[in-house]
Amino acid sequence: MSLSQDQIISDYQTNRRQLEAAEDAIRYLQRQGEQAVDRAIQAITRRLGPQALGEQEAYLQRDLRQAKETYDEIVNQEKRRLQRALDDNERTYRQKMRDIGG
């Protein structure tokens, strides 16, 4: 059973909308994560105050930077995965359209 041109287009558009919504969710989570790190840095700075021990502050900042880098890498991996899925969706759509002569 072959798919109709309308069904191929509909499937492609549905998949694309779902993947784009997932990308939007990732961007939202990325912003939320960046804001959480900024809030954590501000809270630590307020709590430690000007009399903070330099070594403790340096450790905390290092740990926060490492956590942010790990978070950023996870977000970037997910963005790459979604981009591959978008590319695959596009290729599949084009191949199906060629197959039916559309």
Tag the structure with descriptive keywords.
102 residues, 2 helices, mainly alpha, single chain
Structural write-up:
The chain has 102 residues and is mainly alpha-helical. It contains two helices and no strands. It has helices at 5-48, 54-100. α1 (5-48) runs antiparallel to α2 (54-100). The two termini are 16 Å apart.
SSE topology:
Blueprint: H1 5-48, H2 54-100
Helix pairs in contact: 1-2
- How many helices does DSSP assign? 2
Straight-line distance between termini = 16 Å
Q: Roughly what is the average pLDDT, rounded to an integer?
A: 87
Percentage of residues assigned to helices: over 70%
Please give a quick description of this structure.
The protein is built from two helices and no strands. Helices cover 89% and strands 0% of the residues.
